[in-house]
Structures are given as C-alpha cells and as structure tokens.
Amino acid sequence: MTKPNISNNVEPELIAGWLGTRSVARGLPAPVPDHGGWRVDTAQETEQRRYVFAGPADGIRELALSITTPFTFIKMCGTAAQLLALVPQHWQLQRVGYLMTHAATSDVMPVLPPGYRLEIAIDHPFPATVARIFSDDGALAASGYAMEDGGFFIYDRIAVDAAHQRRGLGRAIMAALGTTQQSNAAQRVLVATEAGCALYATLGWVVRSPYSTVEIKARQD
C-alpha cells in the first residue's frame, strides 16, 4: 500500500494534544513529561505504563536502559528501525501503526446498508462519544469513539467485526463520529493499523508518520 505524504517531522504539540485528549477519552491520568516525551500511567493488566515520543530522541536510550518491569511500552513517531536502534535487545517490536491527521470537517450522517442501525451516545462514565452499529439480530457490527478537547478531535478504537466487513460500516462509523465535532478549528488525529490506514486514506486522511512500538520482555539471564 502506498502511503500519501509521509513525514517524520511531527510537531511535539500535536502528539501532546492527541495524547492528552486520548487520556481524557479513556479516563486515564494526564500525560506527564518524561525523558523528552510523555508518560501515561495506564495501570492496566496488560499495560502498566506507556512512554510516547514525537520522534527519535536521545532520552529513549536512557529510558529503555532504566526500565526493568514488564507491561511497559515505548511508542515513537518514526520507523521500526529508528526505534529499535535506540533500545536494548530485550525490547520487542510490536505491530507498526500510522499517525494520521485530517483537515476537513464536513461530515454528514451516514446512510447504512439494509439490516443495520446506528446508535450514538456518551461513553459513561467517560466523556468520549461512542458510535455503535448493530445488525438486525442485535449483534454489534462496528464501533468507534471520538473525543474533542483542547483544540483536538481524536478518533479512537475504530473496529468492524469480521463478519460485517466490506459493507461500508467503517466509513459509516467515521462519518457518524465526525458529525459530533463541535469546533471546526479542532485538529483531527488518529493512529491507524495497516488496514485502517488504507481505509482512512480514501477518506482524505494524511499519514504524518509511522508510529512504532516496543514492549519490554523479561530478560533471559
């Protein structure tokens, strides 16, 4: 797949805004500056904390050497090779994603294919908006979240069930969430998988950078 307009020059303000809004949407602690990036103490069963960087930074080397606890992630705007060059060998590469932005704000409520219905609500107890598409038999076919805060409008956890793919439901979720944006000046941001990147590119989203992740493994002594 060809990625349009890829640039590794990602403004730290963009990452800070996206990460802060993501924390609000998920009810997580606010990001804290750390080693030239940001730390989020997620305190979840499979992720205790994550460190996020706008690009390759010297602080990543020192940080990676200091960490010994599992379920810790370092995430960076840049290629897998760039990130792996900064961490010891006991860090394991995860699937690479793509940081993407979008300039337009002209969404209209989607028309669903027959056999589906759309629900939009607030994700209580969190403030994010959630859009869900159900099939006529009540099964959850697709879902996604969005949050606007501090000049940023982020899309999060966009998913289409395998049994309902290739029916335009991903596009419908994106459009439905887009209609909830309040400020035309808010910057739209998301991080996509490889498959998601292909879809979002057709909707006018631009890849700003690969988004690479490593996770610490237990040392083999």
Automatic annotation (TrEMBL):
Residues 81-221 form the N-acetyltransferase domain. InterPro entries: Acyl_CoA_acyltransferase, GNAT_dom. PROSITE patterns: GNAT (PS51186). Pfam families: Acetyltransf_7. CDD domains: NAT_SF (cd04301). This is GNAT family N-acetyltransferase.
